[in-house]
Amino acid sequence: MSVVKRVSMIFKAKANKALDRMEDPRETLDYSYQRQLEMLTQVRRGVADVATSRKRVELQMNTLQQQQDKLDRQARQALGGGREDLAREALTRKSALQSQIADLQTQYQSLQADEEKLTAASQRLQTKVEAFRTQKETIKATYTAAEAQTRIGEAVSGISEEMGDVGMAVQRAQDKTAQMQARAGAIDELMASGALDDVTAQPNDDIQRELDQMGGGHDVDRELERMKVELGGGEAPREIEGTAPGAAGSTANGQAGKAADQPQTGDGA
Amino acid sequence: MIVRILGEGQLVVDDVMSAELNELDAKLEAAVNAGDEKAFRPALAGLLARVRAAGTPVPADSLEPSDVILPYSEASMDDVRALLTDDGLIPG
Predict the structure, then answer these.
(1) Which of A14, A70, A201, B91 could join A167 in a cystine, given CB atoms 3.0 to 4.6 angstroms apart?
(2) Chain B closest CA to A14's CA: distance in Å?
(3) CB count, 10 Å around CB of B1?
C-alpha cells in the first residue's frame, strides 16, 4: 500500500481511538471538547516555549555580534598602528566567532519558522474548537439517536484529526526547543567560563591593552621627536630610539620595575 | 478531496489531481522502501509542493475530516516510518 494511504489510515485510526470507548454519543462530544480545551492550552504553552527559546538565541547572537564588531575595530586600529600581528590575532578570534554566530542564526530562523507554524496551528485549532462547541450544543439540543450518531462522528473525527496534527506539532517543537535549550545553555556556559569572552568581552582585554599601550608609545615617540627638534640636535641618543616604541618594550619595562621594587620591600620588612 | 499536510493544515484539491499525486506518492514509497535518503527528500518535497500549489485552504471553522494525510515537510525518513506504525508519533 502507498505511503500516503498508510499514513492517512493509521493517523485517523489513532486520532479516533480514544473516542471510540464512549457508549453515549453525547458523552463523546463532551469528552472530545474537554480534550480540545486541553490541547489548546498545550499549543499555547508550546508557542510560548518556542518564543522564549528564540529570544534567548537572539540575545546570544547580539552579544557575539558585538564582540565581533569590537574585534573588527581592534583589527583596524592595530593595522593602522602598524601592528599586523595584533590585527591578525583579532581577526583570527573574529573568524572563530563567525561559525558560532552562523549556527545561532540557523537556530534562530528555524525557531522563528516553528513559532509561526505553531501560532497558525493554535489559531486554526481555536476556530475549530469554537465551531465544535456550537455544533455540540446544536446536536445535544436536537438529539435523536440515529441522526446524532452520524453528525457526532463527522464532527469528532474532523477535530480529532486536527488535534492529532497539532499534538504532533507541539511535540516536535518541544523536542527541538529542548535540544536548542541545551545548545544555548552550552554557549551560556562557555560565555560564563570565559572561554568565549575571555579574549574579547572584558572591558580591558589583552588586545585592547596592547592597543592602548601602542597609542601611548606613539605619544612618547611624538614627544621625543618634538623635543629633538626643540633641542635642535640631530643627534638624538640612540638608546632612547631603541627602547621607546612598541608595547613589548613597555611591558618589559613594567616588569623590570616591579622586579626592582620587590627586593626593596623585602629589605624593609 | 481534502488533503491534510501535517503541521500545515487542510487543503481542498481537485480529484483530477489524484493520478499525479499517486505518481509522486509512488516515488516517495520507493525511496522509503529502499531507505534512499537522497531520493526521499526531493520526493517528499515534490509531493507537498504539488499539493500546496494545487490546493486551496479549507476554512478554519470546518470540521471535516481529510481524505488523505501527508507527512510534515521536515519529516525524516525515520519519522515517516514511525508514522506508518501503530505506536508511532501520533499522540493518543
Answers:
(1) B91
(2) 6
(3) 14
> Which residues of chain B have a CB within 8 Å of the CB of A168?
6-7, 72, 89-91
Tens digit of each residue's pLDDT (9 = 90 or more) over A159-172: 888 888 888 888 88
The reply to whether B27 touches chain A by the CB within 8 Å rule is no
CA distance B27 to A80: 61
Q: List, for residues A39-59, the tens digit of each pLDDT value.
A: 999 999 999 999 999 999 999
Do A71 and A97 contact (CB within 8 A), yes or no?
A: yes
Model confidence, pTM: 0.69
Beta strand B68-70 pairing with B56-57:
unpaired
Chain A hits for B22, Cβ within 8 Å: 2
Question: What is the amino acid identity at position B43?
Answer: A
Closest residue, chain A, to B7 (C-alpha): A169
Half-sphere exposure of A166 (CA within 13 A, CB side): 30
Q: What tens digit of pLDDT does each residue of A129-140 get?
A: 999 999 888 888
In this prediction, residue A219 carries a pLDDT of: 62
Of the candidates A207, A227, A177, the residue with the CA atom closest to the CA atom of residue A85: A207
B90 touches chain A (CB under 8 A): yes
Average pLDDT taken over every residue of chain B: 87
- What does the alpha-carbon distance between residue A168 and residue A174 come to, in Å, rounded to a whole number? 10
B14 at A interface, C-beta within 8 A = no
Listed range (A30-34, A84-88, A203-207, A261-265) with the worst mean pLDDT: A261-265
pLDDT digits (tens, 9 = 90+) for B66-91: 988 999 998 999 888 888 775 443 33
Select from B8, B64, B69 the Cβ nearest to the Cβ of A7.
Answer: B69
